[in-house]
């Protein structure tokens, strides 16, 4: 049986897309391996959002080529966002690569792999395949889940593809195409299928997930299509928790805030990308809100759900950002007191408006701001986690902890990771644990009631 190794870079959307490719290949008799030296097919699902992400994937493929020297019939493929944005150019750079498949063609990967394998058996080398075309309806192709055995406790569900926001720094609208959404009934049947097989929590995925369906479906009784979807999911028996990522502050309206007062399955966590705390920079980024508006939305969310955890994304060193403007961001981070922030140094992306702007900052300056902000973020997160010590919280157990195999891990409704002494019997269960201590962003707990 041919073996496939899949390495995934980038966001949850890429993880979900890789799952779909894995599903398609296993359905045809392939097995998955975590050891690339054992593999007959090596697929690298790529991200283009920052230069560093592209370099990692290119470096990884560079190493994979060494394996091909001894095994000419090994298939090497690039999938995803960098495959989409660079296309055939990747073959010029890495001529051993057999397959380059963009973001609207994941569902074709298994066919292409089979074709290549057939060609390899009849000839010494196969002609490489590049497919970065657009495809109508591709938003509905990411929907199958590995069907061997029980489903995972927590699952990603892709509800839309693409992004029409065109933030000036961002490559995603170019790699993922126009915004397009699946139907509510299609999403519901996927979720019901998962729940029947044991899933307890879903995370709805989209680049601007709260704007789901805005081009396709009407507002009903003041509720946007996204909020309608949340109310439908609340009714799914056996589903315990609903999450989503990432919403855009501009689309965070009363209907969604209201859902936090009415839907018990909606977890008290929101990842709400801020990007900058300075209004001039926000405008230059083409983010259509102000720091005042962002703060107001945070206040209203906290009024609806006082214990809601908030996390965010921030870019430091956007072109022309002054030190005083950066300090506005630091100050806003303090004011909101985020549970966690992902801080990114601005990275110039080819053909985006910001890449052509005057006033690019030096790497040293970006790194300096990165360090300053990270220190602040860590201090706040640590203080927040201290408040949880001694408290009993509910976790959904996902499986063994990544760091210590004897321990298990789960997430609280606030999306905090808790490591505890557990076993297979806990997997997929909702469990109350008492928090004993915290280190970094991880909490350590003991089951409140031993079974
Ligand atoms: N759709 C999501 C974000 C997707 S990209 C949203 O709008 O919130 C994830 C994060 O990468 C962004 O929130 C942003 O903080 C960061 N990012 C995007 N482009 C970047 C760039 N050119 N340089 C540095 N960080 C970037
Ligand atoms: Fe990129 Fe902005 Fe779209 Fe997010 S909303 S994916 S940052 S263009
Ligand atoms: Fe990266 Fe593409 Fe996601 S560029 S962040 S993998 S949508």
Describe the structure.
With 451 residues, this protein is an alpha/beta fold. Helix content is 35%, strand content 21%. It has 13 helices and 19 strands. It has a 6-stranded parallel sheet, with helices on both faces. Strands 15-16-17-19-18 form a 5-stranded mixed barrel. Strand 1, helix 1 and strand 2 form a beta-alpha-beta unit. Helix 12 runs parallel beside helix 13. The model has no long low-confidence stretch (mean pLDDT 94). The chain binds S-adenosyl-L-homocysteine, iron/sulfur cluster (SF4) and FE3-S4 cluster (F3S).
Query: Roughly how many Å is the radius of gyration?
Result: 23 Å
Roughly what percent helix? 25-40%
Widest sheet, order of strands:
2-1-3-4-5-6
Q: Can you summarize the main beta sheet?
A: 6 strands, parallel
* Distinct small molecules: S-adenosyl-L-homocysteine, iron/sulfur cluster, FE3-S4 cluster
Classification by helices and strands: alpha/beta
Distance between the termini: 42 Å
| Count of alpha and pi helical runs | 13
pLDDT under 50 segments (min length 5)? none
Residue-averaged pLDDT, rounded? Answer: 94
Strand content: 15-25%
Number of strand elements: 19
Mass-distribution shape: globular
- Assembly state here? single chain
């Amino acid at each position: 049986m041919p073996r496939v190794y899949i390495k995934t870079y980038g966001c949850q959307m890429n993880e979900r897309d890789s799952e779909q490719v894995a599903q398609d290949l296993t359905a045809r008799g392939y097995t998955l391996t975590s050891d690339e030296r054992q593999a007959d097919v090596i697929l690298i699902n790529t991200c283009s959002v920052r230069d560093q992400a592209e370099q990692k994937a290119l470096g990884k493929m560079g190493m994979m080529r060494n394996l091909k020297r001894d095994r000419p019939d090994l298939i090497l493929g690039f999938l995803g966002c960098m495959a989409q944005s660079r296309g055939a150019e990747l073959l010029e750079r890495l001529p051993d690569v057999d397959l380059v498949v963009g973001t609207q063609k994941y569902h074709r990967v298994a066919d292409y792999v089979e074709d290549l394998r057939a060609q390899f058996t009849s000839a010494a080398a196969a002609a490489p395949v590049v497919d970065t075309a657009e495809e109508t309806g591709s938003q509905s192709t990411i929907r199958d889940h590995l069907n061997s055995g029980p489903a995972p406790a927590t699952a990603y569900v892709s509800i839309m593809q693409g992004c029409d926001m065109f933030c000036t720094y961002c490559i995603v609208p170019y790699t993922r195409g126009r915004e397009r959404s699946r139907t509510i009934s299609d999403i519901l049947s996927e979720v019901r299928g998962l729940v029947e097989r044991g899933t307890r929590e879903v995370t709805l995925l989209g680049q601007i997930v709260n704007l789901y369906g805005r081009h396709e479906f009407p507002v009903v009784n003041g509720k946007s299509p996204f909020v309608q979807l949340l109310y439908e999911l609340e009714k799914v028996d056996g589903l315990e928790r609903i999450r989503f990522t990432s919403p855009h502050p501009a689309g965070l309206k009363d209907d969604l805030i209201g859902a936090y007062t009415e839907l018990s399955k909606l977890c008290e966590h929101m990842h709400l990308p801020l990007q900058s705390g300075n209004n001039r920079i926000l405008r230059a980024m083409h983010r259509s809100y102000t720091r005042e508006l962002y703060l107001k939305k945070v206040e209203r969310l906290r009024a609806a759900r006082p214990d809601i955890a908030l996390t965010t994304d921030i870019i430091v060193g956007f072109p022309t950002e002054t030190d005083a403007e950066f300090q506005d961001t630091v100050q806003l981070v303090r004011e909101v007191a985020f549970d966690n922030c992902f801080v990114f140094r601005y990275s110039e992306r080819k053909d985006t408006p910001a890449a052509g702007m005057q006033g690019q900052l030096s790497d040293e300056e970006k790194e300096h701001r990165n360090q300053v902000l990270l220190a602040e973020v860590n201090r706040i997160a640590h203080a927040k986690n201290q408040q949880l010590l001694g408290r009993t919280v509910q976790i959904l157990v996902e499986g063994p902890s990544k760091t210590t195999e004897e321990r298990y891990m789960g997430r609280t409704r606030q999306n905090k990771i808790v490591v505890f002494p557990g076993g297979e019997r806990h997997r997929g269960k909702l469990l109350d644990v008492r928090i004993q201590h915290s280190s970094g962003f991880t909490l350590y707990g003991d089951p409140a009631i031993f079974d």
